[in-house]
Amino acid sequence: MLIRPTKPVPENEVTDARLWLGRRQVIAAAATGLLAASLPAAATPSGSAPGLGALSFTPGKLPAGETLTSRDKITSYNNFYEFGTDKSDPAENAGALKVLPWTVTVEGECHKPGQFAIEDLIKPGSLQERIYRHRCVEGWSMVIPWIGLPLASLLGRVEPTGNAKYVAFETLLRPSEMTGQNSHVLDWPYREGLRLDEAMNDLTLLAVGLYGDVLPNQNGTPIRLVVPWKYGFKGAKSIVRIRLQEQMPQTSWNMYAPGEYGFYSNVNPDVDHPRWSQRKERRVGEVFRRETLKFNGYGEQVASLYAGMDLKVNY
Length: 315
Ligand SMILES: Nc1nc2c(c(=O)[nH]1)N[C@H]1C(S)=C(S)[C@@H](COP(=O)(O)O)O[C@H]1N2
Ligand SMILES: [Mo]
Description:
binds ligand MTE, Sulfite Oxidase, Chain A, domain 2, 22% strand, alpha+beta
């Protein structure tokens, strides 16, 4: 979120999004036919990636009036400071990360803490595709076909205690491969947090894939948070630890600049960032900027979480 002159994004994405839509239409057709009657809901074969195999998932729905951002853009214009601060750095440098074995530790205020191997979390039957708007605090946005599991399903497995009020997330700390961690641009490991009711909301996803395949390293391999009504930085990548706790967790960007990045960080056109307006955004790949929607357009599902709160104070 350091603001730098924007580099031009290569305009070489062409038919990628349309091919994906074509494939999904075939899948949707199959899902309404006889095949669906004889199979469990999640039986969609897709491409495979080294180590983790193919993902099976229930196809999702494109929000009305939206167009998918191309896979090229989603995987080449990234924020992942563990691999550098330029938008093109993660695609160049994240290949160095050795992904497997990978476990996610879930601990703290819960009755059944545990360590979950990534293979356990991506089992057939657990994964859904969710096509979400993705709005970065810097003013750009995308529409991304994620694949993941609702965070609530993992939290349900560990059975939160009555003391659990918040959920803290931590990214892997491995400066030998995440070479950006050798600089002090942020206080590592990358940390994020949600209130428990935000974490349990059905929109909140632990994403393990996009465009039908496992997550490319630069997008947060092998598992990252996606909270579509919040600015993109809430979506911690490459998560190794999830902790249920009574206190509000510290978050990396809030520690870096408390006056600029609050704990809630809901997408809100009415609350300017101290150095720029949040009224508009640029869909990556589009020329004209568009109006930013309150809660990124997900108000119907989440506005009630903030009833009675002053969102200018709780930004
Ligand atoms: N671990 C980690 N997670 C992170 C970041 C980061 O630097 N490190 N950047 C955040 C920011 S600022 C954004 S906008 C999104 C970008 O996700 P994407 O590259 O998949 O679009 O990741 C978020 N998650
Ligand atoms: Mo961001």
